[in-house]
């Protein structure tokens, strides 16, 4: 038992802090009051009826011609419950009661979903099972959605604990990343970004393993991260972080094996492009200043091919626009990644942002105190390869948003959100030099464990404070605001 506690104390503390905080967030936050949650509920709800793929349907916006939009078929009562609390407060008892009284419908309604319909369904399954369990237990749609949130939270915690337990170094950084208010609030909702962040952490943890000792289990990083890129293809280059260490035998063979795991996401994207993927509807607008064509052209939707033309008109924009976005919005992205709750409208106190930023940086410093015992050894060339993959992936994510979300010819990228960058942290820890052997040689074998505990302590303390702070913040916003 003592050995178990010594090896897994960070994972145990994660459960002790994240479980009660997550449960309270799942239960006190009104349904739909997490970013894009109604759309994610529709995706999970459609799976109840075996609808793995969305489909295209005709739709006529007010005052406009009929257009084709992506949609899923969802229980009408579930749709009503997913939106019913969007404008409610705890004091609005009439509205609360009317939403809670909604019943399951015999018919399914069309739910238009421009983004979630394209996401791979696997990470929605916990929420779907929760809805099904609630319905089987006699719950009405609203109550079943809260049950679904709890199932999503439990899946998030399970993946997170596995990541912390498996990692050979960087456990404090994984703890800090997955305890961030942003990550934990997503994990306690139907938004699959929570599970995407946790699965990225699991991938990073598997890649800390020494391939000479843990060759088979280490390769589980590939199917794990494939689940991420099936929903978020721009992160796909990070799959090749599995090639580290580059000096290991059979690099070409390992590269081909890794490339094979890129095929399922490509196939999924091809299927989605054929059956459901459509550009986002916009009001009529003229293109922005970067449009190289006729400025009098009228657009009614986003247009990836048109924005690709914008980028190719001056290829340097492929780099300058993403870098410019980070320079202009770096602090906003940082605070948003730490915690911008609700529909990115509920901020934390300034002390919370400062404390969490310090905690993450301290935990990153703890990676440097890690040892190579059972972990992949650190080499400068491998760290360089990881940094190149991360930098290229950041550019890919931001460009993908510009192509698919921003208006044609926009002068700057405008769509990225802080939570998108949390998936990079578990990979960045692979690039941090580790001095554990030197520390142990100078101060004794227990020094590295002490350093790990000391650098993880800020995150542990703040996570404990958040057990009261975060649920209280949501209660004040929705019950007293």
Automatic annotation (TrEMBL):
Signal peptide: none annotated. It holds the Pfam family DUF2142. The chain crosses the membrane at residues 119-138, 150-170, 190-209, 221-247, 259-281, 323-345, 351-371, 383-405, 417-435, 447-470. Keywords: Membrane, Transmembrane, Transmembrane helix. This is DUF2142 domain-containing protein. It comes from Acidiphilium iwatense.
């Amino acid at each position: 038992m003592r050995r178990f506690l010594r090896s897994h104390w960070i994972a145990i503390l994660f459960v002790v802090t994240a479980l009660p905080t997550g449960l309270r967030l799942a239960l006190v936050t009104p349904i739909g009051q997490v970013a894009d949650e109604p759309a994610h509920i529709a995706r999970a709800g459609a799976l109840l009826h075996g609808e793995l793929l969305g489909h295209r349907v005709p739709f006529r916006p007010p005052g406009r011609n009929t257009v084709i939009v992506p949609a899923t078929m969802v229980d009408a009562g579930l749709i009503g419950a997913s939106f019913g609390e969007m404008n409610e407060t705890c004091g609005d008892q009439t509205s609360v009661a009317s939403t809670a009284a909604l019943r399951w419908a015999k018919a399914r309604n069309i739910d238009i979903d421009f983004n979630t319909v394209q996401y791979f369904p696997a990470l929605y399954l916990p929420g779907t099972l929760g809805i099904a369990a609630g319905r089987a237990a006699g719950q009405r749609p609203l109550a079943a959605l809260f049950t679904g949130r709890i199932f999503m939270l439990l899946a998030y915690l399970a993946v997170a604990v596995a990541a912390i337990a498996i990692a050979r170094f960087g456990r404090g950084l994984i703890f800090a990343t997955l305890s961030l208010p942003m990550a934990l609030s997503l994990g306690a909702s139907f938004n699959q970004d929570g599970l995407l962040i946790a699965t990225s952490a699991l991938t990073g943890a598997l890649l800390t393993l020494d391939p000479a000792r843990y060759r088979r289990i280490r390769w589980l990083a590939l199917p794990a991260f494939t689940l991420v890129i099936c929903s978020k293809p721009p992160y796909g280059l990070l799959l090749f972080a599995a090639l580290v260490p580059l000096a290991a035998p059979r690099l070409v063979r390992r590269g081909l094996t890794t490339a094979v795991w890129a095929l399922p996401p490509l196939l999924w994207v091809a299927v989605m492009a054929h059956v459901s993927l459509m550009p986002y509807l916009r009001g009529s607008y003229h293109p922005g200043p970067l449009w190289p064509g006729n400025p009098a052209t009228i657009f009614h939707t986003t247009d990836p091919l048109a924005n690709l033309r914008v980028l190719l008109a001056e290829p340097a924009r492929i780099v300058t626009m993403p870098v410019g976005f980070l320079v202009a919005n770096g602090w906003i992205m940082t605070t948003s990644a730490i915690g911008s709750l609700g529909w990115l409208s509920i901020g934390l106190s300034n002390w919370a942002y400062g404390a969490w930023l310090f905690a993450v940086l301290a935990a990153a410093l703890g990676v440097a105190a890690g040892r190579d015992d059972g972990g992949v050894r650190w080499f400068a060339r491998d760290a360089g390869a990881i940094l190149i993959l991360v930098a290229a992936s950041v550019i890919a994510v931001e460009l993908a948003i510009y192509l698919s979300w921003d208006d044609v010819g926009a002068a700057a990228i405008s769509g990225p959100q802080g939570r998108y960058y949390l998936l990079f942290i578990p990979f960045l820890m692979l690039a941090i030099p580790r001095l554990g052997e030197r520390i142990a040689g100078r101060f004794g074998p227990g020094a590295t464990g002490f350093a790990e505990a000391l650098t993880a302590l800020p995150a542990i303390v703040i996570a404990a404070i958040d057990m009261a702070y975060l649920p209280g913040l949501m209660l004040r916003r929705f019950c007293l605001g």
